[in-house]
Amino acid sequence: MKQEDLIKHIDGPQLTVVPLGGQSELGQVLWLISYKGEIIIVDAGAAYPTRESPGVDLLLPNTTFLEANQDRIKALLLTSGNEEYLGAVPYLVKHVTVPKIMAPKFVCCLLEQTKEDLPADHPLKDIPIENIETKQTYSIGPFKVEWIKVNDSAAQVSALLISAGHNEIVYMTSFKLDQTPTDNEMADIARLAKLGEKGITLLIGSSAGIEKPGYSESESSLYDKLHSRISKARGRVIVLMSGTNTYRLQTLIDIAKTCSRKILLLGDSLIRSAVASTMIGNLVYEPELELSLDDLDKTADKNILVVAAGKEGNPMSALAELGEGIYRDLSTKSSDTIIYSSEIQPGRLRQMAMLLDQFLLADIKIYWGEEQGVHVPRTASQEELKLILSLTKPDYFIPAFGEGRHIMHHAQMATECGMTAESIFPLQNGQMLTIEHGDAAIAGRVEYQAVLVNREHGERITTFTVNERRAMSSEGLITISLIIDSEGKLVSGPQFDCSAASFRYSLQWKEACTEMTKNIIEAISNKISDAKKSKDEMDESAIRALVRDTAFKTLRAQLQTKPVLQIIIQRLIAKK
User: Is the pTM of this model over 0.85?
Assistant: First the structure.
């Protein structure tokens, strides 16, 4: 369906919901919700790439459809300080006009700090950021919005109630129902139950924890387990965790005090979160517990607790840099104890195993994950997800914020809870769901492919580039050089240079070069002959395509490989 036709679903009286990221993937959450021709954006998150994406540092939601409709946008609503829901805000507002941002105070504090690190002309510096309060209703164009307190790893995470005419949407964001949160701020289950009694049109529910049975463990349950590991450590303790996990940070600060350790925070996102949560009164500590980098070498190892996060708050990147000895401001020693207090990201299990081997061979103790008692999940488990479904009693349901299997398992759970298959929409990124006169249907799909970003160069990386880099790392790079005259005839070459490939020293490679030389010479000769008959010109692009195609076919036949090919053609210009 053409974009012009899809825009009609925004112009009309119907309610329209579109995920532009976060479906069948963890992170880069962004939702577009429109009613009566006006749009609100909900969340704008980033995601971390897998190791199969060389040269990519961040994945961000696609903003193409929003850019085409930016005059309709009324506000950006944020629900969480986690990078998966917040990390793409600077990118979003650079490409899309956003009149204002509305968020809980903790998120507002994070954004204000982010502004300080941006260039003077960055649009985020000029956008009003409104601090909201839960249990209050805000009018935004044709919408009425209420933030509802839930629990998560970051402070002040909130679900949303979005009212559009007769439609009521509950957007659950990432959550869990912690019965003993470290800040004693309970999720507002009573409000969700009351909404269910009134009637909910659509529930957008978090699916990431669907594979874990029962209830998620409370954050406060970690205290004794972490205290035991830290108090028994013979030297420094280095804890790696998400940069926005403010509840875990409070637990570690409390433990540092009881174990007579000073605490050193490393990582920009972790420090921003600590400052923001202190400003709102969510984080309580005594300044004398702080340790600076300058005093690190002057303090006894047994009195040091380091809490670190990597780029964009990613603990796995910090662990990898520690293992490789390239982490800024910190290197490991054999007396250290490392605690990886976070989830292992999908696609990173092999990397984790290699890092564990490195640390253990260096005589460094390391504890990781839920199995070793140093982490609890931040997402709701099966019984909590069932409870939300039974409390809200939605007419329609979108399982969200998870990988494909999470979303489909959550959809299956909804049927087990009494919903019909026709009322459940496991949307993919870009799919447009419309609700009009109580009827819901998928209307089409807008552009949705993720934006791939290299942090150092600030570039948008195409999928083609990633595939090419992946091929280079596994199949190698072959450069084919040749010289042709003004008529396209081969004067010299082809010459072959092979790098980053396992076969380059083999007898088969030499045989393949001989075969490629013969085939390329023959192909160019035939092409020239055909061009003379049809009186066509032999341009360099045609020769380059011919050489590439011929070389690929030969390599596939001779070596069963498909490396990246670089064709270099020099052309002799005849003197007049």
Answer: no
